[in-house]
């Protein structure tokens, strides 16, 4: 979501101001789209090689699914809660214990016996024991057909570096250059920004083979896989010209944010011409998911392998509306360099990196379901099983690769959705993810119109194929402030909040202090649910996310350092990798602090303030209201886009001045506001924000909706505000404002007046001895 809004933010703002015709029309197109299932045939000239990473047992056919159906013939498996051990060690949980925990139950499907094309695999003489750590080397004989008496759970024979390189070299020699008519599809591929650029009818499409489990979704043990051959890849194979002219151009394109990701299915990855024969090269594949939907996947090999020619793997999820990242050699993320670790750095540190186009976006089939464990989560589970069969992927055990996940926004949510149903994942690092999309888009029944329209614009402009009810619900909420209960139920049904207790994977949560979409409250809810379940959890609040840092600069160093330490400790099983204290945060000055526990105990004396003078203010859209914050123009192009919904001091406001601090005071957590009011009109919310009197910046750029009833009667309500991380020096103070209009909740259907008869606030503070300063390494 964060990076995806780079595409559609400006168009979305126009809709927020009432100019919604383009999105309404786009929604009609999206609703009319049948979703592009994996079985549809597209006329292209892209060459593919079909492989089935599976045993010889019959596979079950993919169930035909309508857009509104639940998985597995319209019956959603019952969500099961699993009691988790509260005394698990800080190190990675035992894989055998994780295997006993499984996601939701799956309805039985009739067996069938299609005949997929199977990939020749080495058949080990003995079945290696599933153990945590490096697998035992097994000599790999010549490739033979899988025998009918193969064990129920397929076993991948580990290989020496020599055998692995030989096998890779054989595959390279077997590749055929795509036919020259592939050039004819280039223009149409560019027009559609690469979406479906590589679709064609698979040589063989089979459902994943699964091992049935009575207590949850089965873990896939065989997946139909097709290698994709980009139509212009052959240009890099032209002697001399390809090596010294074409490949450098391809490398340069891949270094440009978004451009290389869009063009990758056409131009391919840059070839390493000077690598030893048979050395792993980056390639793309189509992986068939549980329901026959094809997921477009990129595999980018590590630059460091062990003596077996293997490396652990990291899955890198993209933001909303974006294809899977393919910046092969960049050490920092090309679009969000201060929020997410780069693919190049992960490869340097000894990790294979895998990215993908999420369901319903770009080259992947199906309909987007907003990172539902029932859909997108199971897509990733199929990818994991495919990785377990690759000879260059290190294993923890049978069908269990050493694997972690990173990614921001939409790429953060998928980590929680997947870890809830697949316990093979060793570590996740969800960055600026959400807890509940209902609470995000409709907090306290207010409509977050700014971000809702921007995200809707992204879906329309990138030709995404969301569930057919998502765009109409967003548009109805934006324009009229009303949403059907059935659409709210859909958001809740597709969510993972009620399954966080199923997660056993060690989790590092990054959340932005200036994120106006997925606020600190979202990470707080995730963290508390994980900690309550006994899951190893760490929380970092940093200046970034869906917003703009206007009071300080985030260089991303701590984010990258903590990410690598988390992956090394829990994926590589490196006990020397220090993951640091449980909670780290930065204030508005860029200073870092930490606590050994989360949530941090607010043991300091709270700062309080009160106002008893009545004041009346009218409801006027935009004029005199909060935001946008003009200082975001100094945050760079992306900062401007992400910072548009930022709150700012308002003129049409009721002010409560809080007494100045008498000592260094850390305000960390959620302030509490009590409001006494009356009034008349159609408005159903006012908004509260806290302004730093020294800098004239709103803390965290946040405005919090406060529900009101304007029936002429006097009411008193108490609500928490959005969480903040702020430091006051002696003599510094803040002012609480009640406003009737703010840029992130802008609407044109709220009118009337409100009489604020009194208000008070309590700001949570930390005792000085509860805070340690942290130095970003």
From TrEMBL:
Residues 31-131, 588-611 are annotated as: Disordered. InterPro entries: AB_hydrolase_fold (IPR029058), FrsA_esterase (IPR050261), Xaa-Pro-like_dom (IPR000383), Xaa-Pro_dipept_C (IPR013736). SMART domains: PepX_C. Residues 564-767 form the Xaa-Pro dipeptidyl-peptidase C-terminal domain. Keywords: Hydrolase. Residues 588-606 have a biased composition (Polar residues). Residues 31-52 have a biased composition (Low complexity). It comes from the Bacteria. Pfam families: Peptidase_S15. Gene3D superfamilies: alpha/beta hydrolase, Galactose-binding domain-like. One of its GO terms (molecular function) is dipeptidyl-peptidase activity. Residues 84-107 have a biased composition (Basic and acidic residues). Belongs to the AB hydrolase superfamily. PANTHER family: DIENELACTONE HYDROLASE DOMAIN-CONTAINING PROTEIN-RELATED (PTHR22946), POLYKETIDE TRANSFERASE AF380 (PTHR22946:SF9). This is Xaa-Pro dipeptidyl-peptidase C-terminal domain-containing protein. It comes from Mycolicibacterium psychrotolerans. The lineage of its organism: Bacteria, Bacillati, Actinomycetota, Actinomycetes, Mycobacteriales.
């Amino acid at each position: 979501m964060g990076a995806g809004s780079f595409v559609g933010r400006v168009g979305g703002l126009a809709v927020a101001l009432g100019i919604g015709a383009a999105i309404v029309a786009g929604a009609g197109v999206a609703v009319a789209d049948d979703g592009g299932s994996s079985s549809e045939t597209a006329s292209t000239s892209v060459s593919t090689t079909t492989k089935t990473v599976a045993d010889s047992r019959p596979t079950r056919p993919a169930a035909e699914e309508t857009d509104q159906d639940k998985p597995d013939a319209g019956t959603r498996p019952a969500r099961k809660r699993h009691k988790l051990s509260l005394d698990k060690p800080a190190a990675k949980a035992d894989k055998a214990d994780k295997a006993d925990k499984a996601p939701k139950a799956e309805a039985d499907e009739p067996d069938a016996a299609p005949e997929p094309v199977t990939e020749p695999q080495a058949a080990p003489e003995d079945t290696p024991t599933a153990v945590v750590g490096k697998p035992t080397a097994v000599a790999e004989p010549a490739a033979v057909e899988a025998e009918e008496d193969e064990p129920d759970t397929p076993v991948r024979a580990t290989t020496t570096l020599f055998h692995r390189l030989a096998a890779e070299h054989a595959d390279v020699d077997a590749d055929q250059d795509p036919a020259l008519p592939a050039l004819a599809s280039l223009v149409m591929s560019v027009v559609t920004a690469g979406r479906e650029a590589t679709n064609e009818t698979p040589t063989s499409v089979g459902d994943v083979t699964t091992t049935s489990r009575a207590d949850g979704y089965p873990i896939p043990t065989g997946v139909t896989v097709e290698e994709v051959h980009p139509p212009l890849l052959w240009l890099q194979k032209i002697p001399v010209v390809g090596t010294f002219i074409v490949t450098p151009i391809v490398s340069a394109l891949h270094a440009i944010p978004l451009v290389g990701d869009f063009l990758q299915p056409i131009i391919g990855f840059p070839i390493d011409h000077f690598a030893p024969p048979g050395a792993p090269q980056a390639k793309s594949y189509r992986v068939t998911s549980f329901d026959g939907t094809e997921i477009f996947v990129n595999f980018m090999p590590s630059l460091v392998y062990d003596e077996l020619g293997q490396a652990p793997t990291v899955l890198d999820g993209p933001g909303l509306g974006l294809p899977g990242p393919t910046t092969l050699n960049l050490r920092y993320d090309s679009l969000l360099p201060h929020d997410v670790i780069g693919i190049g750095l992960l490869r340097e540190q000894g990790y294979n990196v895998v990215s993908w186009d999420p369901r319903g976006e770009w080259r992947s089939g199906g309909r987007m379901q907003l990172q539902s464990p029932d859909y997108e989560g199971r897509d990733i589970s199929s990818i994991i099983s495919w990785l377990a069969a690759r000879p260059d992927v290190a294993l923890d055990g049978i069908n269990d690769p050493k694997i972690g996940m990173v990614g921001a926004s939409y790429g953060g949510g998928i980590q929680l959705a997947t870890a809830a149903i697949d316990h093979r994942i060793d570590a996740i690092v969800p960055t600026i993810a959400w807890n509940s999309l209902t609470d995000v888009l409709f907090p306290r029944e207010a409509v977050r119109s700014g971000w809702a329209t921007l995200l809707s614009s992204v879906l329309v402009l990138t030709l995404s194929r969301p569930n057919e009810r998502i765009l109409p619900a967003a548009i109805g909420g934006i324009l009229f402030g009303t949403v059907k209960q059935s659409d709210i139920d859909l958001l809740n049904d597709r969510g993972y909040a009620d399954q966080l207790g199923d997660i056993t994977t060690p989790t590092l949560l990054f959340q932005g202090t200036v994120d106006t979409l997925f606020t600190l409250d979202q990470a707080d809810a995730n963290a508390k649910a994980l900690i309550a379940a006994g899951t190893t959890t760490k929380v970092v609040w940093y200046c970034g996310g869906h917003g703009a840092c206007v009071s300080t600069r985030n260089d991303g160093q701590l984010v990258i350092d903590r990410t690598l330490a988390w992956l090394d400790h829990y994926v590589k099983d490196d006990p020397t990798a220090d993951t640091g204290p449980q909670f780290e945060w930065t204030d508005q000055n860029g200073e870092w602090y930490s606590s050994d526990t989360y949530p941090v105990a607010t043991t300091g004396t709270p700062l309080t303030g009160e106002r008893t003078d009545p004041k009346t203010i009218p409801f006027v859209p935009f004029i005199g209201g909060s935001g946008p914050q003009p200082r975001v123009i100094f945050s760079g192009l992306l900062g401007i886009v992400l910072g548009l919904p930022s709150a700012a001091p308002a003129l049409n406001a009721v002010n409560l001045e809080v007494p100045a601090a008498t000592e260094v005071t850390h305000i960390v957590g959620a302030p509490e506001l009590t409001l006494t009011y009356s009034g008349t009109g159609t408005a159903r919310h006012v908004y509260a924000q806290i302004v730093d009197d020294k800098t004239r910046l709103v803390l965290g750029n946040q405005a919090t909706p406060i529900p009101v009833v304007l029936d002429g009667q006097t009411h008193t309500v108490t609500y928490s505000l959005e969480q903040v991380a702020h430091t006051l020096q002696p003599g510094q103070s803040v002012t609480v404002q009640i406003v009737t209009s703010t840029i992130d909740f802008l609407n044109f259907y709220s009118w009337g007046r409100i009489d604020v008869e009194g208000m008070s606030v309590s700001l949570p503070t930390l005792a000085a001895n509860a805070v340690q300063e942290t130095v970003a390494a």
